[in-house]
Design brief:
Elements: H1 2-16, E1 20-24, H2 42-52, H3 63-74, H4 76-86, H5 95-102, E2 108-112, H6 118-122, E3 129-134, E4 145-148, E5 154-155, H7 157-160, E6 165-169, E7 172-173, E8 179-180, H8 184-194, H9 202-207, E9 212-216, H10 223-232, E10 240-243, H11 250-259, E11 261-264, H12 268-275
Parallel strand pairs: 1-2, 1-9, 2-6, 3-6, 9-10, 10-11
Antiparallel strand pairs: 3-4, 4-5, 7-8
Length: 288
Amino acid sequence: MDKANALLSEIIFHLEEGGIVPYLGPGVLDLIPGGSPVPNSPEALVQQLVAKSSVPFKIRGNLTATAQYIENFKHRKTLVGHMTEAFAIDAPPTFLHDYLASIVRKPLLIVDAWYDNAMATALQSRRLSGQMQGVSQSEHFGTWVHYFRPDGTRTDPFEADTWDTLLYKPMGSIAPAKNFLVSDTDFVEVLTEIDIQTPIPDVVQQLRSGRHFLFLGCRFRTQLERTFARQIMKRSSDLHWAVLPGELTRNEARFLAEQNIKRIDMPLDAFARLLTGEKEAEKLAVAV
């Protein structure tokens, strides 16, 4: 128990001192009271896509392949339309989003690897903040990232150097401009260059240096999930944490060991409430 409390204190200290980059996945939306109004996993999203467009049975469980089929046979605009409809309802910020937005240490970098706008909404009150979104080469050839102010207006990468809070959405987002990396082609383009870091904003590469990562609501079951996490955390600290309840796949366990990510084996809701002070720290029970 003392070890668990020490771990929690260490994470809180690093977060509030700016030494941690929170890395959010779709599972964070599970914290929304009453359930998420938008898809909260790749599996939930692909089911919404196949409900809108018929695709071959063998790829119906594969998000990127399904998106590629729709793009090929129905047009890119149809795919973007389906994605827009799936995330059209505003996802309200959870208590975890609000806690992260309240951290005063600057500059604060948050990575959000899903398409909802909950984290961006929570950050609206931070005046010198902005959002960086990955964009599809199918729609914006030659450009990897677009930069947006809190009011949704687009700006240039130089302004990002002046922000005290930076939200990096590597796969795009519903707001403000409906940018989505979701099809096989979208990711092939990015993965071709990501090893040399071209698609990752310079300011992200600078701010991650020496920092730990805390993965919340993420899984690492697919090669895509692992590759994005690996490349975004490249050249950062040599110690990280991930809240990962339940049984790990072999690939997940190997990835955690390879990247020196310490696992916290408890439900995200319970960990988030401890992190934000909604539960007593002595009730923490983790496996690392």
